[in-house]
Amino acid sequence: TVNVTEPLGDSLLLHCSIGETPCKIQAKARSEIRPDDTVSIAYDPARLHLFDPESGDALYHSESYASSESAAAAADHG
């Protein structure tokens, strides 16, 4: 269920709940999604990021994200 929508210019951030679990979902900016809507979600495994709900620590980043971070770090030190 969508609790809050947050327009970010080029995208729409949905603050949702799946049962009692809060989550944030990025949608297309022109989406007609409103608070209290029920939405179906799918994700691109190449762009997945998971975080610990208590500490906020990153638990998982997709391989494509990890590769781009490594390339950026190498460019900063090169």
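Second entry:
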Amino acid sequence: LYDYKYEVMGLLLHALQLEQDCGVGPHTISIPRLEPAFNAPAAITPPHPVSDHDFKKLVAIIRMAVPYTGMILSTRETPEMRDEVFALGISQISAGSRTNPGGYQEDNSDAFRAAQFNLGDTRTLDEVILDITERGHIPSFCTACYRLGRTGKDFMDLAKPGLIQKFCQTNAVFSFKEYLLDYASPATRAAGDKLIRKMIDETFKTRRKKFVMDKLREIEDGRRDAYI
């Protein structure tokens, strides 16, 4: 809605004030660009459109300025743009989204007229997961921190020095394995299992590797909701 440089500066100063006044910074930062929407003139002709070049630059700036935060990208962006900004700091994306009332029903003929905004990425969840996997990224469906109370200052104490990865990597493997068994297509399951084996071999040390392998066998035997 305004010059992106001013908006990014305001966002970062807000994050700084949160840390100074509350002792915690933002858990996540989302960076949606305005996309055309029915009967929304400001969305159809944004007063301050952000170019692809500037968008990628602001993603990198926010990542460097707030290295511990999760950065969210919505389905407004195209698959090509999403692939590029993964390398610049995006850590969370939506997939298979619908933005109109009743959009997840099979009959979606009035989607544009009722949609909140146009989608740039219309792939299914499985297609997105397969693409992410083939690019060497482990998709994670983990919600352990919320459920175990690792929020607020407790989360920041782990996230800022990078200690959270000892939970994230393991939980990503567990939650991804559950997805592969319960929802994935055969192609996605094969690609995912291959990536999990590669990650286990390259990431986990002997003691943690045994723990992860034991839990994966439990998941294959029917256990669900595994996390640490």
